Amino acid sequence: IYKQRSIRSYFSAA
Amino acid sequence: MFEATFNQASILKQVLEATKDLVNDANWDCSAEGIALQAMDSSHVSLVSLSLRGDELASYRCENQISLGINMNTMTKILKCAENNDRTIIRADDDADVMVFVFESEGRDKTSKYEMKLMDIDSEHLGIPEQEYSATVQMSSKEFSRIVRDLSTIGENVEITVDKEGITFGAKGESGSGTVSLKSNPSVDEGSSNITIDLTDSVKLNFALRYLTFFTKAAPLSDNVSLSLSADVPLMVEYAIGDVGFIRYYLAPKIDD
């Protein structure tokens, strides 16, 4: 089973 | 006052085709440098980043930074009112609640003008770090679209492996499996796959084909696409828009649980 994290968790809030 | 002139409507039409399935509403951030757009899809697993440089357009002016909240579907419909070769001007006053579109036919004998209501969009802007990728693959955008389409008939996810041999795309589903491998073979021969791979470390990652399918809508913008991968970070898929700019897509990998 695959999980997919939010793209947010890879990039910082600008 | 913001005003940008495109020699042809086709670039804007193609940009909208490349984004409208992923993003419903987005702020077009206009500055003296040009137009930028950054938006996540509704499930927040992918992000699209568009950049158009003002000095590469037919004409461009933007005295004050302005964020134009645009419903992408509405803009797509308005752009369908333009012929591909129509000179296209988009314009908005600093405190405007509308964007004006002017389409001029090639012979200058027909001018159409449309106004589109702007929206207030509360958008979240993410900082995308400069990233050294383990592998960057340049390939034909048509070939990439074809592989994504073909493997979508097999499964929901694609496993992308890049090593010194080349790049392999693999999908598995309930009814079977499939793989497509392209050898790293920079060649001037017509008909060769003509891919180049810049590799520091081999990588193997899984991605949802549903999103890659959305990304391939950008293929008409460029003959080539570049795929950049590193372990545990989002895939970056980039299409250059001539000398004017780029559209980049980021997709979070699927992690084996």
Number of strands of chain A: 2
| Alpha-beta content class of chain B | mainly beta
User: What is the CA-atom radius of gyration of chain A, in angstroms?
Assistant: 10 Å
Shape call of chain A: rod-shaped
Structural class by helix and strand composition of chain A: mainly beta
Biggest β-sheet of chain A, characterized?
A: none
Strand order in the sheet with the most strands of chain B: 6-2-3-4-19-18-17-11-15
Distance from first to last alpha carbon of chain A: 32 Å
Helix content of chain B: 10-25%
Please tell me the overall pLDDT of chain A. 86
> What overall form of chain B do the CA principal axes indicate?
elongated
Q: What is the N-to-C order of secondary-structure elements of chain A (H for helix, E for strand)? A: EE
Largest interface: A-B, 14 and 24 residues
The radius of gyration of chain B is 20 Å
Query: Uncertain segments of chain B of ≥5 residues (pLDDT<50)?
Result: none
User: How many H/I helices of chain B?
Assistant: 4
Could you explain the architecture of this structure?
The complex is a heterodimer of chains A (14) and B (257). With 14 residues, chain A is mostly beta strands. Helix content of chain A is 0%, strand content 36%. The model of chain A has no long low-confidence stretch (mean pLDDT 86). Chain B is mainly beta. In chain B, 15% of the residues lie in helices and 46% in strands. Chain B contains 4 helices and 20 strands. In chain B, the strands form 3 sheets. A 9-stranded antiparallel beta sheet of chain B has the order 6-2-3-4-19-18-17-11-15. A 5-stranded antiparallel beta sheet of chain B has the order 5-1-7-8-9, with helices on one face. Chain B has a 4-stranded antiparallel beta sheet with strand order 14-13-12-16. In chain B, helix 1 (9-19) packs antiparallel against helix 2 (72-79). The N and C termini of chain B lie far apart (51 Å). The mean pLDDT of chain B is 95. Chains A and B meet through strand 1 and strand 2 of A and strand 10 and strand 20 of B.
